[in-house]
Design goal:
- With 311 residues, the protein is mostly helical.
- It has a single domain, classed as Na+/H+ antiporter like fold.
- Helix content is 79%, strand content 0%.
- The chain is built from 13 helices and no strands.
- The two termini are 13 Å apart.
- It is a multi-pass membrane protein.
Length: 311
Amino acid sequence: MIFLSILGPMFIMAVISVIGYIIAKTNEITDESKQLLISIMLNVAIPCIILDGAFNTTVENGLLSQLVIIFIFAVIISLLGLILGLFFARMFNYSSSNAKKIAFISGLGNTGFIGIPLCAALFGPKGALLAAAFDTGLGIILFTVAIAIIQKDYKFSLASLKQLINPPTISIVMALLVIIFDIQLPELFVQLNGMLASLATPLGMLYIGILIKVMLEQKGAMSIRQLTLPILFKLIFFPALTIVLISLTNFSLLMKQVIIIQVAMPTMTIAPVLLARYAQDEEIGVKAAVVSTICAIWTVPFIVFLGSKFF
């Protein structure tokens, strides 16, 4: 049963986060060291997980169409998440500036750092591949609409589109080529790729542990209490709404399970980086990423359980 099988990986992630906090507590963690962890995750571990899915997935009829469908669905649901997040924030009287940041942290989830490794652990290589397609769709909304929302004076430029050309995106294109042309790579390369892919979960959760220490040291304007409603929206309300929506489709069971898990993911780990760069507010990103990730240890199994009752 998927509900029971998800408890183990979530517990392991929680333990690794605690280890990350202990490391940060007993060692000096600089901005450069945090950026190094993010760089390894984005440029090595996550791309290798995506490729590992292609190398170890049996090509079957309908796989490419499933990837395209999940990609399109991810674009639509991510855009809907931002819109509802913004509406939700304004309804609860957040200022215009804060409402945009709330939409950012409550509308988009950690589908790359946590979602892809979790789907790989639960569903194997094919699950990772489907999760990567979802993450790619979310990435398009992230680096276009979401970035535009949080900037005060946003002006469209080709530079914003260049951010879509990144290692995870390139790796999913490579994965599609491997699947389409049934490319067989040397076993040594496949093993090396698999070892690098296994770095994803430990590094991602170690980084969350480091952010916990950063959060405890911050004394900014927005308290954790003020983030309670946005986090509830991100982890409970919006995933529940998504469950209702996909229950009306004829998607395969695996596709529905992957979508549920991806939508139920906490605020993205790189939210502090992006909010610091585009909105000059790292604090809200750190607190949202940390608190939502801790809460997700409990809410993700609940959402999966809820989904199992619909299909």
